[in-house]
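Hi there,

I know you've been waiting on this one. I reran it after we fixed the sequence typo, so this is the corrected version. Both the input and the resulting structure follow.
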Amino acid sequence: MPPPSIDPRSGFCPTNRTFYSLRPETPLPPESFPISAAEFALSLLGSSSLPLQPALIDAFSSASLSFPSLLSQSSSLATALRSSPFNLSPGSVAFILSPSRLEISVLYLALISIGVVVSPANPASSPSEISHQIGLCKPSIAFSVSSVASKIPSEIPILLLDSPFFTSILSSNVPNSPVPTIKQSDTAAILYSSGTTGRVKGVVLTHRNLIACIADQHTRRSEKLAEAAAAGETPSQTVALFTIPLFHVFGFFMLFRAIATGETTVLMERFEFGAMLRAIEKYKVTIVPAAPPLIVALAKSPDVLRFDLSSLQTIGVGGAPLGRELAQQFIARFPNVDLVQVRC
């Protein structure tokens, strides 16, 4: 609990020179309660009345995945990965080298639900960088796509996400087996630093870390919906466009947030500014998680004026702090869009 001497306006405590949050504590499951981050996210989504809108849409191909399909495919995959010939067990590490695809969301849910540590990396990395990352996480298996799989050392077993075999696993009718016990203190993911202060480092996140982030965002969304209802407003359906890759901590966390809140997520396998603008217009996107360089483009590019971006309600900025001057330039062009600094 925060000490009693904190400033009620700022949350600053002069005794230990620490700022404390003034928000109510986010409800979390007891630390001793066994639950994975995937199970927690799905518990918030619920299973009795799944959202009717798509869970995921590919911005380029328009292929989509419904919430029932997301759950059934992740369940089938989780069961298959625990069985022969994979035999993955809690604590095993899965290295993932792939651009953002619909299958990545299924894979993340399946692996984390059975206690396998997810370790996604940038597919644009060089073979030497990937070898370094593999040396850090020591995976039992790798998941990749045909275009970049050759970068992975040959001694690591690889399952291709764009292979007919992987597709067949997603629709297999293997009976579900009991889910292993996952402690919240267990490692859920090993993500990688940007390498700006030296070689890339592996950053460990526990299930508890992810659960706390998911719960906080779910609580905030519930509060906003309650405020809208009290004001007699009918909130529009949330559609998030991911310009950020799913291997990055920002995209990784935002994906679980979207699943837990039942939002539609539009994925971009590769970022193109014009394609992003077209996707916002086509899919009536309401929220875009973004890094500051994208805010620069939105605030200054004349291309923005050629598209109907009226559906856009929120830009969640992460990855780096947003400067005041840039924020003011963005607000001048988009006065009706909330600009929010996201904390992961």
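Quick highlight: Residues 50 and 68 are 7 Å apart (CA to CA).

Best,
R. S.
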